[in-house]
Design a protein that fits this description.
This protein has 259 residues and is mostly helical. It has helices spanning 5-23, 32-52, 63-85, 87-90, 92-96, 102-130, 137-165, 171-185, 200-203, 207-221, 227-251, 255-258. The chain is globular. The model has no long low-confidence stretch (mean pLDDT 85).
Length: 259
């Protein structure tokens, strides 16, 4: 009997839960690292850019909230793409020993980052309370939509690169470098307002920059992009996801032989 959609969902969730449980297995602090990692990064960057560069007093009084929101979104994307990229190799036994749909391995691996992101949102909510900032319902709704788009973008990248990583292991190191570039090319550690307006359209062509900027602007300041700009971004990400999935299905057949 061929596997059903229900079996596929169960397999994806099982892979995701297993990865999440094993991620910090054996470490002293365990799951505390899920929250501690972004907080340590936030603390350092907030000190540097709030105190030394004075972003908090230069038109962005809620800079710490913007910084933490952007860091959580970027780390979500970073972890989802890295685990998705290496998913088939890291789970080579599932690929070579038994038959499971290869796409469930990739999707299950990226969902580990989704669990981590969900836990970090609790920390973000506490910071909103600390800064006495209550986001609007529209702001929360759009933040959720942007988080979903970010996840689709990460899954699309994973489908596109996972089969090729089996043959070209250097891809992980290349992607680490690209992620470092993307961090500084996106309004994460700096507000977009410090960039001349004439350059905004070029920066926001980067879907990661677009999502992070408008996600934090919507939930913190209640500022949203235009409907048509938003729909163009949605269409681009959805089309990229479909193309990536078809490329994955084309090359997944040779994965077991190359592992």
């Amino acid at each position: 009997m061929p596997p059903t959609h229900e079996n596929h969902r169960e397999l994806v969730m099982r892979i995701a839960k297993t990865d999440f449980k094993l991620r910090y297995h054996g470490s002293v602090l365990g799951y505390v690292w899920v929250i501690l990692k972004p907080l340590l990064m936030f603390t350092i960057l907030n000190f540097v850019f709030s105190s030394l560069f004075n972003f908090r007093n230069s038109g962005t009084p809620l800079y710490p909230l913007e910084l933490l929101t952007a860091i959580l979104l970027f780390q979500f994307f970073s972890e989802a793409t890295m685990t998705g990229l290496m998913s088939l190799v890291n789970k080579s036994q599932l690929v070579t020993k038994i038959y499971v749909p290869r796409w469930t391995i990739v999707l299950g691996s990226t969902m580990n980052a989704l669990f981590v992101f969900g836990m970090n949102l609790i920390v973000l909510a506490l910071f909103f309370i600390l800064y006495n900032k209550i986001p609007s319902i529209a702001g929360i709704a759009m933040f959720i939509v942007y988080a979903i788009l970010l996840y689709i973008l990460a899954v699309a990248f994973s489908f596109l690169t996972a089969p090729f990583y089996v043959r070209f292991r250097d891809l992980s190191m290349v992607w680490e470098v690209v992620l470092s570039v993307l961090m500084y090319a996106s309004p994460i550690i700096y507000p977009l307002s410090i960039i001349p307006t004439k350059y905004w359209q070029f920066i926001l062509l980067n879907p990661l920059a677009f999502i992070i900027h408008y996600a934090k602007q919507g939930i913190i300041n209640g500022n949203f992009t235009t409907f048509w700009h938003f729909m163009a971004m949605v269409a681009g990400i959805v089309v990229a996801g479909i193309i990536a999935f078809f490329i994955f299905r084309k090359y997944e057949k040779t994965v077991a032989e190359m592992i």
